[in-house]
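Sequence design from tokenized structure. All designs in this work follow the same two-part layout: the structure record, then the generated sequence. An example of the structure record is given first.
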């Protein structure tokens, strides 16, 4: 088991990619803090992990404010004593023309996708640095690396998180903390249901692999970046996008 004895906080692990990451980390022996706003789904994920012999606890958090982010960091540390692995996965998305994005939507995307990872990492990375070890994995997107009509705002938030990934390497790598990103392509999760099948089919048709990812395929990449096998890997974006950004 590659993550035996480690403790991981996975934001947005009540659904989709985050849930798959939480379950994969638990199978590798990590203690998991499952987090999100939906307590019922969060507790179901915890039960699923425990049913297979894993260790997990749910901590509610709405990541739209710094106060809630700070509270999540404190509670997550209190549950298992320390956080060794932080996965900044929770994300908000909107699909559509730039001119149709209202200000509350703009603020929701930047608060969830940039401000929350920023302050969560600010709260937890210094403790990892003091211990001389830690892993931070930022879930970005293919949309941070190519221009995609209908995803301008979303892509901008994920491009900001890509840059934070590199800046945190400069700040924390010398202290033994690995900071990396995973940029998924279209992945079969509830987030995409709001986009409509036609939009997702259109994006998927542009992938060399010719299909969308399953959440577990993103989780496999996260296990690598959380494990000792990636200890000399700093600041990469692992593109798990069926080859889309390669061609
Ligand atoms: N699916 C894709 O095709 C795709 C592609 C590229 C990148 N991504 C990225 O992958 C990550 C996971 O996406 P997904 O597809 O798995 O989405 P999902 O199934 O909709 O899950 C999103 C998760 O984020 C949490 N979340 C959203 N807003 C939150 C808030 N304000 N406070 C706390 N938690 C919040 C949700 O928790 P609650 O429901 O409990 O509130 C949920 O667990 C996101 O960062 C997304 O941008 C996804």
């Amino acid at each position: 088991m590659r993550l035996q004895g480690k403790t991981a906080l996975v934001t947005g692990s009540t659904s989709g990619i985050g849930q798959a990451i939480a379950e994969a980390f638990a199978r590798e022996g990590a203690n998991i803090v499952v987090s999100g706003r939906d307590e019922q789904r969060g507790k179901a994920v915890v039960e699923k992990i425990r049913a297979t012999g894993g260790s997990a606890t749910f901590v509610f958090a709405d990541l739209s404010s710094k106060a809630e982010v700070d509270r999540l960091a404190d509670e997550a540390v209190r549950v298992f004593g320390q956080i060794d692995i932080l996965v900044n996965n929770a994300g908000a998305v909107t699909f559509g023309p730039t001119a149709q994005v209202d200000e509350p939507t703009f603020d929701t995307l930047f608060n969830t996708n940039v401000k929350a990872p920023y302050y969560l990492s600010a709260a937890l990375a210094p403790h990892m640095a003091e211990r001389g070890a830690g892993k931070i994995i930022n879930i970005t997107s293919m949309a941070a690396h190519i221009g995609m009509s209908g995803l301008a705002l979303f892509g901008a938030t994920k491009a900001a998180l890509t840059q934070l990934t590199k800046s945190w390497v400069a700040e924390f790598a010398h202290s033994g903390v690995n900071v990396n990103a995973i940029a998924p392509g279209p992945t079969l999760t509830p987030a995409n249901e709001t986009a409509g099948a036609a939009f997702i089919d259109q994006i998927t048709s542009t992938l060399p692999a010719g299909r969308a990812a399953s959440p577990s395929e993103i989780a496999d990449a996260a296990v690598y970046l959380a494990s000792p096998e990636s200890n000399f890997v700093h600041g990469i974006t692992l593109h798990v996008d069926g080859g889309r950004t390669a061609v």
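The helical segments are 16-27, 39-51, 66-80, 103-131, 152-172, 197-204, 215-226. We note this feature because it recurs in several other targets discussed in the main text.
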